[in-house]
């Protein structure tokens, strides 16, 4: 967004002097002594930035892969060195930041005699007029002003790079009045015109309430995506295609994109930009439950349900592919459970361990006397609408039980292996589910690859800093394989794969 700067009356430009680090002084052995920043940078480089982060920076910042690596390494080093430099400069510290496509480390000070200290740490030095403490005190005085008008003064913050407090102004006169009410030294403030209109963002969580049309209530099943569009899976009887929804806070949320009932009982809602689907379920009294995947639990397995009327209740799976007749007609292919539910819980999450099972359809009884309930399986919903389940950082079940095929092996640190072999396997179009159970205390990753001509291409991955991974991929028919990689640590693993 282009922004026109309007400098307030009485504003004085802060003087600056930038000094770059010189060659380090020789150590006892005659070789240059490494600076604190150089040492921290070497440690960060040895830890190796995550490939997914490198790819994202290339895409979103328009930089090369080499620049992305340098940027990540320098940023990690800066975060480690900055506290020590801040302590050395004391009251003369004026802020620190990284600059340029590779994030070179810069430290500002108000005392010219402290420049040598900054250079010895391996950072660029910038001499400025105002200390960080002075700028933060000015910001706090703005914080204390009551009633900043929405849209007229969308934001204010300390900008260490310009050595000033920036006040964004949708309405310049209102911004000037806001600054005057704080009684600030105008030399500290820079007013910039802005069209920003900030608004809250809300999370889409399984088990939370949502409202349809004029006010009927259901519960979110699981967060999903289709391409770049986010949303959630829920019950088909909750709404028809085109029906609008509001979240539990009564804020406009989304629109039903698909719905089937009776015969089936599934639907999905696409949410607007105010809402962010996250891979968790609101477990109410049980806290927040991470979603690790969607492996079908066996009959007899424990299963828990989250819903906006009765919260969190658990039971067991009694049958799969059950049929039930409601007043509206017969529904087939459901899971039957001993979990209780009541009106308003419809659409809510059924989860076994960290594995999504389905969304609440209906049942009998209640949560006072007990009852029987049915869920529409989540994997059918993903398949029908071409959705991908949003997962969190929860671990999949030990051993990746319940998957179509399992493979076992052992790796040493920084070693990779392909399962079920370098030639891969054939899969039809639809959702694939991948589960990796690695040794405790390690960081194991899994990469789903597809054969395109003679080249294997990564199409999905699980790369959290944990031993276990679980993810889904909705793709076309073809030849696939899974690369299991030991990012750190060694030991045995189990890989689970379910494919269409």
TrEMBL record:
Its EC number is 3.4.21.-. It comes from the Bacteria. The keyword Hydrolase applies. Residues 130-185 form the Peptidase S1A alpha-lytic prodomain domain. InterPro entries: Alpha-lytic_protease_prodomain (IPR037295), Pept_S1_alpha_lytic (IPR004236), Pept_S1A_streptogrisin (IPR001316), Peptidase_S1_PA (IPR009003), Peptidase_S1_PA_chymotrypsin (IPR043504), Streptogrisin_prodomain (IPR035070). Residues 1-26 form the signal peptide. Keywords: Disulfide bond, Hydrolase, Protease, Serine protease, Signal, Zymogen. It is an enzyme of class 3 (hydrolase). GO terms for molecular function: hydrolase activity. Belongs to the peptidase S1 family. This is Streptogrisin C. It comes from Streptosporangium brasiliense.
């Amino acid at each position: 967004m282009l922004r026109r700067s309007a400098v307030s009356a009485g504003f004085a430009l802060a003087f600056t002097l930038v000094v770059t680090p010189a060659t380090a002084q020789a150590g006892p052995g005659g070789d240059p002594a490494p600076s604190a920043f150089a040492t921290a940078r070497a440690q960060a480089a040895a830890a190796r930035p995550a490939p997914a982060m490198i790819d994202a920076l290339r895409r979103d910042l328009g930089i090369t892969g080499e620049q992305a690596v340098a940027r990540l390494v320098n940023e990690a080093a800066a975060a480690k060195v900055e506290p020590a430099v801040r302590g050395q400069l004391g009251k003369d510290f004026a802020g620190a930041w990284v600059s340029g496509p590779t994030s070179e480390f810069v430290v500002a000070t108000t005392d010219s005699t402290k420049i040598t200290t900054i250079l010895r740490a391996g950072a660029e030095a910038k001499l400025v007029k105002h200390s960080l403490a002075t700028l933060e005190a000015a910001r706090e005085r703005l914080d204390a002003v009551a009633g900043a008008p929405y849209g007229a003064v969308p934001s204010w913050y300390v900008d260490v790079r310009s050595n000033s407090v920036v006040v964004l102004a949708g309405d310049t006169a209102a911004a000037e009045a806001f600054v005057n009410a704080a009684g600030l030294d105008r030399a500290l403030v820079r007013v910039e015109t802005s069209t920003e209109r900030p608004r809250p963002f809300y999370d889409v969580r399984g088990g939370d309430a949502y409202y349809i049309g004029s006010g009927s209530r259901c519960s979110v099943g699981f967060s999903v995506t289709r391409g770049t569009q986010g949303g959630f899976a829920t019950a088909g009887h909750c709404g028809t295609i085109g029906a609008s929804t509001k979240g539990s806070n009564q804020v406009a949320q989304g629109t039903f994109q698909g719905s089937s009932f009776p015969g089936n009982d599934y639907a999905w809602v696409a949410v607007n930009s105010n809402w962010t689907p996250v891979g968790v379920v609101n477990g109410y009294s049980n806290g927040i439950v991470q979603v690790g995947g969607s492996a079908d639990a066996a009959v007899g397995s424990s299963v828990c349900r989250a819903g906006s009327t009765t919260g969190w209740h658990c039971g067991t799976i009694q049958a799969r592919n059950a049929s039930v007749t409601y007043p509206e007609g017969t529904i087939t292919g459901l899971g039957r459970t001993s979990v209780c539910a009541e009106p308003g819980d419809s659409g809510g999450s059924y989860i076994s361990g960290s594995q999504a099972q389905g969304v609440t359809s209906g049942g009998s009884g209640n949560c006072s006397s007990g009852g029987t309930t049915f869920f529409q399986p989540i994997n059918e919903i993903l398949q029908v609408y071409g959705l991908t389940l949003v997962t969190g950082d929860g671990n999949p079940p030990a051993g990746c039980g319940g998957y179509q095929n399992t493979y076992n092996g052992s790796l040493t640190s920084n070693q990779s292996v392909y399962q079920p072999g370098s030639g891969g396997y054939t899969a039809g179009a639809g959702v694939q589910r991948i589960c990796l159970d690695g040794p405790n205390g390690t960081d194991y990753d899994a990469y789903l690859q597809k054969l395109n001509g003679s080249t294997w291409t990564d199409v999905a991955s699980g790369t959290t800093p944990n031993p276990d991974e679980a993810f889904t991929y909705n793709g076309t028919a073809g030849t696939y394989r899974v690369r299991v990689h030991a990012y750190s640590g060694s030991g045995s693993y189990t890989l689970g794969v379910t494919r269409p």
